[in-house]
Amino acid sequence: MMSSENRSQFSVSCSSVSEKARAKINLALHVTGQRPDGYHLLDMLVTFADHGDRLDFMRSPADAFTLSGRFGEVLAGDGGTNLVLKARDLLRGAIGPLAFPVSIHLEKNLPVASGIGGGSADAAATLRGLMRLWGTTLSAETLAALALKLGADVPMCLESRPLIARGIGEELEPVPELPAFAMVLANPLKGVSTPEVFRRLATKNNPALSLTPSRPQAADWLAAIAATRNDLEPPARELVPEIAAMAAMLQARGALLTRMSGSGATCFGIFASMTSAEDAAAALHDARSDWYFQATETVSGGA
After folding, report:
1. Per-residue pLDDT tens over the stretch 211-251
2. What whole-number distance in Å separates Cα of residue 63 and Cα of residue 21?
3. Which end of the chain is more exposed for a tag (fewer CB within 10 A), N or C?
4. Is residue 272 annotated as involved in ligand binding?
5. 114: annotated binding-site residue?
6. Are 76 and 69 in contact (CB under 8 A)?
7. Which residues does the annotation mark as catalytic?
C-alpha cells in the first residue's frame, strides 16, 4: 500500500513537466530579398545545441513566473513582454477551460538577444511543455500559426532539429543527414541591434542557399557549410568589433570553422571533438572571463 508521503510525491511528479530550450545555431544565413511589408526573405541552415535554457511547469493555484540562471536578472524587468508569458497566454486562448493556472520557472542560461534564439526557444518550449501539462494537442497547422505569431524563429525552435528555413522563417524542411558537431559558443555580452544590422546590409538580394555535400560525412558537411555565408556578419562586425576578435580567438584554439549566428553577436566554432571544444572553451574563459564561452554538441538530423 502506498504511504501518504509517496502518494503526495507521485501527484507532484505527475503535475509537473520540464522542457529544454535548445540554443538555435544559424550555420548559414543568406538574405535573398525583402517583402513589401519590410520583412527580409532568408535562407537558413539551422541546427540546435544541447546547451540551452530550461523551463519547469507545474499546476498552481494561480499563474506565477520565476527566473534563475546566469542571465535571469537581465529578464527580471521584462515581465510584461517576456515571450514565455506571451506563449502561455496565446496557447491558453486556443485551448480554453482545460488550461488551468500554472507556475512557470525559467532557468536562463543563454545570453539574451544574442543571435541564438534564446527567447524564441523559450517560447517554443513553453508551447511544448504546457501542451503536455494541460494534456492537450493542437493540429500541426494551428500550432505552427500560434508559433509564428510569437516570432519568425519560434516555428523552427518548436522543431528543435536540423532544418532549412526559408521565407521569413516559416517554410521548414528537415535535414536528416546533418551530423552532430562539437562546438564552442562565444559571446562578448554586448548587445547588437538586429534592425541596425539589417539597415547596414549593403545588398538584400543575395544568392540563395545551395547545399550539396558530396557525402554525408562530417568533413563533407563542413566543406559545404564553409561555402555558405552569414550575410549579416559583415554589418554586425562593423557595429561590434568584438565579433572579429572572438572569431580569431576560436580559430587560434583550433576551430575548423567559425561564423556568427543569426544577427549576432554570438559566434560559434566547430571543433574536431568535444574534448577539444571543452579545452578551447576553458582556455578562452581564462583569457576573457568577462565574456561568455560554452562548449556544447549539436543534435544530429537523424536523432
Report:
1. 877 667 788 999 999 999 999 999 999 999 999 999 999 99
2. 21
3. N
4. no
5. yes
6. no
7. 24, 153
129, 109 contact by CB (below 8 A): no
Separation between Cα atoms, residue 232 and residue 217, nearest integer Å:
28
Tell me how long the chain is.
303
Name the grid cell of 300: 544530429
Distances from the Cα of 299 to the Cαs of 17, 24, 50, 186, in angstroms?
Answer: 22, 11, 7, 18
Distance set, CA 20 to CA 57, 85, 201 (Å): 12, 16, 33
User: What would the pLDDT profile of 99-148 be if each residue is shown by its tens digit?
Assistant: 999 999 999 999 988 989 889 999 999 999 999 999 999 999 999 999 99
Q: For residue 169, count CB atoms less than 10 angstroms from its CB and return exposed for 0-12, middle for 13-18, buried for 19 or more.
A: buried
56 contacts 104 by C-beta, under 8 angstroms: yes
Enumerate the β-bridge partners of residue 270: 183, 257
pTM of the model: 0.91
Ranges of CATH 3.30.70.890 domains, the chain: 177-297
User: Is 120 annotated as belonging to a binding site?
Assistant: yes
The CATH number of the domain covering residues in 177-297? 3.30.70.890
Please report how many Cα atoms fall inside a 13 Å half-sphere around the Cα of residue 220, on the Cβ side.
10
- Residues 250-280: b if buried by 16+ CB within 10 A, e if exposed: beebbbbbbbbbbbbbbbbbbbeebebbbbb
Q: Where does CATH 3.30.230.10 sit in the chain?
A: 11-173
